[in-house]
Design a protein that fits this description.
4-stranded antiparallel β-sheet, globular
């Protein structure tokens, strides 16, 4: 189904062409003066120079060709040559009814669906999730849903930090505490225990303890490095410990991500890429892409058009050790082999941009990915506290993600109980639903690349540009529809009728922007534009609600038209919040 903007543009192109002017001048945009018109076309201004004619005259000729158009209620020329457009109410109603018949509300899927891998999450195992992991998870999940909505095959990969020195530290500390465990007995040949020798809480304490101790004791650090070496070279006992670490950590991570309504299709990590490194390195050397620089193996990625230096991509350190560059390149080798993606999107901290410039250029230059494969860096800004500094606990430490979620849920619970609209036994579940919306909307309403202030008081408010306000609007619509059916009305076989007043038409015009908004959000990878859209839509609905006697309307056809419009508005809002990664309760 074409978007309304596309349909208007077709009408305008025909009018320009019929008047003898280039149809490329017929670009239509939303009006920047909604008090005067709904859409506008400034093509006559651009055509004045080309046709050596006053723009007002060009515009009048174009408008003359629109007099029989079913699309417009009015098309007026405003000096010096602007064309102001208002849509015919009948045309708007017909378009909305067509939208309502479509499973995806008229959004067209990709004609040639692509395979897209989204790399988001990126936590380290054996460590608790903290607020620094929030943005990657929330933004990545929304981007994944948006890409899927347009018909693509999308694969979400958490890309765990599950390899390297941190594992050696845990193994060394465990050996120090429990030297009797069979994993440390070189002569042990039996089966290792199925149960891990630690809980998740113990594991989360082991790592920081070991890390701090290694910084003060060189012999301990050397032992941890050697343990890392043994692990990476297949030492049986250490591989068994690593499996325990992974099982315990991933089980806990899944619980935490489930609370965020975030799901990954792949739970792969750096360890999965190890088997591809050796062959990749040998190929880069044998084919002349890699060179040695002070003992390190590097690939030059500087380009002539660069305004500043882009350092070489380091493949191996001088001691032969792999780095993040190596692992990320090897992961692309694996992804290319297993999935042949058309696009790979990395949702990571924007401060890692240089790293990904190096990796992307190296992958393209060396043929690790195909020339047509799109590699995209979606860098996000920092989540800050009210002091403008990275968000911390009251004590000044890094806040665990589960504690932040609990704090938001408790705040929402208090507000819901105070409102006395939900039974106490349902209030906790409702608080969790609304709390998640507060967190996700608070994050996603900001452009991903921008830093933002995480303000608990503002994000949990039922007023203003917040998640709870959006949900409250959806719940209000649900309540109206429920009362309508309780009083004998049916939601079947009703259709939207032409707007009777400005408030109804404003709501209609906002609803029908949905397709254009989704296409823009998709092409720009910009979930924040969904938030901006549904905030405007919620505002238009609430104006309509306060100015219209919906359920007490005596004209049954008009009332049914109102209800049909609300059913569609609810579908649009619910679709949008699903793309953002949260849902609405029945009551709040």
């Amino acid at each position: 189904m074409k978007t309304l903007l596309d349909l208007i543009s077709i009408e305008m192109r025909e009018a320009f062409r019929s008047a003898g002017y280039d149809e490329e001048l017929a670009k239509v945009t939303l009006s920047n003066r909604p008090d005067l018109c709904e859409y506008q076309c400034n093509g006559a201004m651009a055509g004045a120079k080309k046709y050596k004619k006053a723009p007002f005259m060009i515009a009048e000729e174009v408008v003359a060709g629109l007099k029989d158009s079913a699309c417009f209620e009015s098309a007026e020329v405003v000096k010096p040559g602007f064309i102001n457009l208002k849509l015919a109410p009948e045309y708007v109603a017909r378009y909305l009814n067509d939208m309502a018949k479509e499973e995806k509300l008229g959004v067209e899927e990709e004609e040639n669906p692509r395979t897209v891998i989204i790399d988001y999450g990126g936590p380290n195992v054996a460590k608790p999730l903290h607020v620094g992991h929030l943005r990657s998870a929330i933004i990545g999940e929304s981007v994944k849903r948006i890409m899927r909505y347009k018909g693509n095959k999308v694969i979400g990969d958490i890309h765990l930090g599950d390899w390297g020195y941190q594992m050696g530290l845990i193994i060394t500390e465990l050996k120090k505490r429990r030297p009797d465990l069979p994993y440390f007995d070189e002569s042990f040949e039996g089966e290792y225990p199925k149960e891990a020798p630690f809980t998740i809480s113990e594991l989360e304490e082991i790592y920081p303890t070991a890390s701090a101790y290694a910084k003060e004791h060189e012999d301990y650090r050397e032992e941890a490095l050697h343990a890392t070496y043994l692990l990476q070279n297949g030492y049986r006992g250490y591989r068994a410990i690593w499996n325990h670490i992974m099982n315990v950590s991933v089980t806990d991570l899944k619980k935490n991500y489930e609370k965020l309504n975030v799901e990954f299709d792949l739970w792969k990590g750096e360890a999965d890429a190890q088997q591809y490194i050796r062959d990749m390195v040998e190929r880069l050397k044998s084919e002349g892409y890699a060179r040695y620089d002070e003992g390190a193996l590097v690939v030059d990625v500087q380009e002539e058009t660069d305004n500043k230096e882009v350092p070489p991509c380091m493949i191996l350190k001088s001691d032969g050790a792999a780095l993040y560059d190596t692992t990320d390149l090897a992961t692309l080798v694996e992804r290319e082999q297993d999935y042949h993606p058309d696009e790979v999107i990395y949702v990571v901290d924007k401060r890692q941009e240089l790293h990904f410039i190096q990796v992307f250029r190296c992958a393209k230059k060396t043929g690790i990915v195909r020339p047509e494969t799109e590699l995209k860096f979606l860098g996000f800004g920092t989540m800050n506290g009210k002091d403008g500094k990275p968000f911390k606990t009251r004590e000044g430490g890094v806040m665990r993600l589960e504690n932040l979620i609990r704090e938001i849920d408790e705040e929402m619970y208090k507000k819901i109980i105070d409102n006395r609209t939900v039974e106490e036994e349902d209030a906790k579940k409702t608080a969790e639903t609304v709390g998640l919306a507060a967190i996700k909307y608070g994050d996603l309403s900001n452009q991903a690349s921008k830093d933002y202030i995480f303000d608990v008081d503002r994000f949990t408010s039922f007023e203003g540009n917040t998640g709870p306000y959006i949900l409250y609007t959806i719940v209000r619509i649900k309540s109206i529809l429920n009362k309508y059916t309780e009083n004998g009305g049916s939601l079947e076989n009703i259709c939207i009728t032409p707007a009777a007043d400005a408030y109804e038409k404003s709501l209609m015009l906002q609803v029908l922007k949905f397709n254009d908004v989704i296409n823009t959000v998709y092409s720009e990878t910009a979930p924040h534009k969904i938030c901006a859209y549904i905030y405007e839509l919620a505002n238009e609905f609430n104006k309509f609600y306060h100015e219209t006697k919906i359920l007490s309307e005596e004209d049954e056809e008009k009332k049914a038209g109102y209800i049909a419009l609300l059913v569609l508005a609810k579908r649009v809002l619910e679709t949008c919040i699903d793309l953002l990664g949260f849902e609405a309760p029945e009551r709040m």
